[in-house]
Amino acid sequence: MNDLHLHGPHGAAGLLMVVGDRIPRALLALRSGAVTHPHTWSVPAGALEAGEDPVHGALREVAEELGDVPPLEVLGTVTDIVTPRWAFHTVIARTPACVPIRADGPDGWEIAGARWVTRESAERLPLHPRLRRTWPRLMDVATRRLHHAELQDLVEPQGLAGILTG
């Protein structure tokens, strides 16, 4: 368990931004040399504050680390229960396109860069240990949710109306 470093007494949350192109892509962030598990790829993430739900915590962390992000539609959350008292929540959110992302939020020093990746290209990167364990499951869930959301868009002409904005 030492390789997973449990940060924050209330658990942690991260945001997996995905785009449902023909081949789904996800945004990963390269952790800077100033944080635990430096120079590994992960989702933008951090400790939850007392009473904060995973969706709001993940959105807060993204704003703190990346600054402005494109509009998001939350598709669901995958929870990894690490201990009986600590969990990591990955919030999966769809965005309309693979737009360039810069780490220019107030905590941007935690991130050395960001990149849109396919499932297969991510598996060749040095992933954070927790993400390495959960990556296949996260992408399976993301792909299913993207497919369902795209079918809904065909039925509901408003498309991304009612989305959350970053």
From TrEMBL:
Keyword Hydrolase: yes
Keywords, sorted A to Z: Hydrolase
Coiled coil start-end: none
Protein name in the entry: MutT3
GO molecular function, one term: hydrolase activity
Statement: the UniProt record of this protein carries the keyword Metal-binding: no
Cofactor: Mg(2+)
Sequence ranges assigned to domain Nudix hydrolase in this UniProt record: 8-140
